[in-house]
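On to our target:
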Amino acid sequence: MAPIVSSPRLDSVAAIAAQIDKLVGIDGRLAAVRDMAGAVQPRLTTPGFAGIAKVICGQQVSVASARAIWGRFEQLPGALEPASYLRLSEETVRAAGFSRSKFTTVRAIAQAMVAGELDFYHLETLPVTQAVAYLTAHKGIGPWTAEVYLMFCAGHGDVFPAGDLALLKAVAHGLGLDARPSIKDMIGIAQAWAPHRSAAALLFWRYFAVLRDQEGIAL
């Protein structure tokens, strides 16, 4: 069965721009967000074990820190394959910069893959709601990790990680809301952007980066 995605893969600036244009047609408030954000770059990365390990690496750390930690981690012999990852010691992985909890989570994922309990090819055949449920059934994988994996590794076109703090801040600013939305409220807001929610997330992440870099704007 071919992968089920709600929108074309967002693998080029042109593909993302086309989706954002559709979003502006759905919600006119996004025109100003698009104008400030400028060109939005694709962010697809390797699927499977290496992909989800990279997503977990980036949890709760800055982009710069995540990049440095991942650079050390991916150089460890066997780190990017589940069976060989299981042969790495906790000391070795943590020396690369992983916390104990991240080491444990990635180990549990590797064990599930080796046991045939977690199949990333099967994951890509599922609609996004079922795909999130499939991933979060595994210990250590929460909704944010599942949604970010589906966006950046599986290429799902209709995912919006509503628990992402940068997205919550950017949406509040970009839509002129009185306060940062709750996760529940964010899910409701993003629902109107279906089936292009991945493009909306990419747009608001870019918008957040632009705002953050502008003098005098605090988010």
Remarks:
- The chain has two domains: 13-43+159-213, 49-152.
- DSSP finds 13 helices and no strands in the chain.
- Residues 197-213 form the longest helix (17 residues).
- The radius of gyration is 18 Å.
